[in-house]
Write a structure and sequence with these properties.
The strands form five sheets. The chain has a seven-stranded mixed sheet, sandwiched between helices. It is globular. It folds into two domains: 138 residues, Aspartate Aminotransferase, domain 1 (Alpha-Beta Complex); 254 residues, Aspartate Aminotransferase, domain 2 (3-Layer(aba) Sandwich), CATH 3.40.640. The protein has 14 helices and 17 strands. The model has no long low-confidence stretch (mean pLDDT 97).
Length: 404
């Protein structure tokens, strides 16, 4: 991998922050965007902007073609059986809300959903909203000291009222890569479908929804070098077909009258209103960008950065506590320094040009389980270098000395 060449594709990496070169380690929240993606957004706005699926004129057809080309590209990327199983949303959050609202309408009082304690709020709150309309019980899989799910408890949570498992592929705090394939098989052996929140997996590893046998798979473009405002919900056809529409409006209908309305076929049934077709077109460029480097090489590079950084941190920072030590861990390091507030650490790192995230990371139940209010999180992307990893640890050593 030619990192210097890759870095030249990301103009933002040339920025100085507080007089120092930016070291961007907040990739879990959002990744930076290469020129190829930005150029496509610009191309769409300057030469191909027209509303999709509504016009016979050339521009509208070009915009529609660009959107549908991305749908096919996403289907290939995640190995979906057919493009119509790819539904465009605003992001992972909306994809999960879609399933909670729509599949949720098929649930009955007393039904149960299994979640895990490491879920992002976007895979907790939609189910609670559903539970506020119906009596839905949430069952929660705990983690062990390494931050891995307790699979014995998982198996014990199923009963005849279990209707869905909704869980993350990769934790945005612990970095744990969950054994989703075997967990899906376990759920299927009891006839229960599984929704996978892939927001933190899709930027780092190959996703094959058929190999996983996932019933639903959700992810966000902005975390995988793509534009903001676009996400994907993949679903199995028989489930998507039996689910009622999520929102009403244009695009999602076959025929409307005041007496009654019939709905469009998949995927349009779930895509009411004008989509972010510019962003959707740009998502294809992000997928091509990842493919041009190779997702396996990206993963190897990022995990090597994470392992090297962790080793140095543990050796050099007194009072360091790292949360998440799973055998299979994605490139995220969440930590605290004993006696110091995570905000102070984050603010001082920013003064040294290092961008990390601090707080509860939209995972308050996990924070509670870990017995903390929040922590600092450093996370790696394809453009990060060993020199940056070392500069981050050097900065952290300085910060911890200053705070003491
Ligand atoms: N799920 C996980 C595991 C995440 O890390 C995030 C964002 O950080 C989300 C869901 C929500 O993604 P978005 O805000 O793009 O909808």
């Amino acid at each position: 991998m030619d990192i210097e060449k890759i870095r030249r594709d990301f103009p933002i990496l040339d920025r100085q922050i507080n007089g120092r070169p930016l070291i961007y380690l907040d990739n879990t929240a959002t990744s930076q965007t290469p020129r190829q993606v930005v150029d496509e957004i610009s191309r769409m706005y300057t030469s191909a902007k027209a509303n999709v699926h509504r016009g016979v004129h050339t521009l509208s057809q070009e915009a529609t073609d660009a959107q549908e080309a991305t749908r096919r590209a996403v289907a290939r990327y995640i190995n979906a059986p057919a493009p119509e199983q790819v539904i465009f949303t605003r992001g992972t959050t909306e994809a999960i809300n879609l399933v909670a609202s729509s599949y949720g309408r098929l649930l009955e009082n007393g039904d149960e959903i299994i979640l895990t304690v490491m879920e992002h709020h976007s895979n907790i709150v939609p189910w609670q909203l559903l539970g506020s309309r119906k009596r839905i019980m949430l069952r929660v899989v705990p983690v062990n000291a390494r931050g891995e799910l307790d699979l014995n408890v998982y198996a014990s949570l199923f009963n005849e009222r279990t209707r869905l498992v909704a869980m993350c592929h990769v934790s945005n705090v612990l970095g744990t890569v969950n054994p989703v394939k075997s967990m899906i098989a376990e759920a299927h052996s009891r006839g229960v479908p599984v929704l996978i929140d892939g927001a933190q997996a899709s930027p780092h590893m190959r996703i094959d929804v058929q190999d996983l046998d996932a019933d639903f798979y959700a992810f966000s473009a902005h975390k995988m070098y793509g534009p903001t405002g676009v996400g994907v919900l993949y679903g199995k056809k028989h489930l998507l077909k039996m689910m009622p529409p999520y929102q009403g409006g244009g695009e999602m209908i076959a025929h409307v009258s005041f007496e009654g309305t019939t709905y469009a076929e998949l995927p349009f049934k779930f895509e009411a209103g004008t989509p972010d077709f510019v962003g959707i077109a740009a998502l294809r460029k992000a997928l091509e960008y990842i493919d041009s480097i190779g997702i396996e090489d990206i993963e190897r590079h990022e995990v090597a950065l994470m392992r090297h950084t962790q080793e140095r941190m543990l050796a050099e920072i007194p009072g360091l506590k790292i949360y998440g030590n799973a055998a299979d861990k994605s490139p995220v390091i969440s930590f605290n320094i004993e006696g110091e507030h995570h905000y102070d650490v984050g603010l001082l790192l920013d003064k040294l040009g290092v961008a990390v995230r601090t707080g509860h990371h939209c995972a308050q139940p996990l924070m509670k389980a870990l017995g903390i209010e929040g922590c600092v999180r450093a996370s790696f992307g394809v453009y990060n270098t060993m020199a940056e990893a070392d500069a981050f640890v050097d900065a952290l050593v300085r910060v911890s000395t200053m705070l003491r």
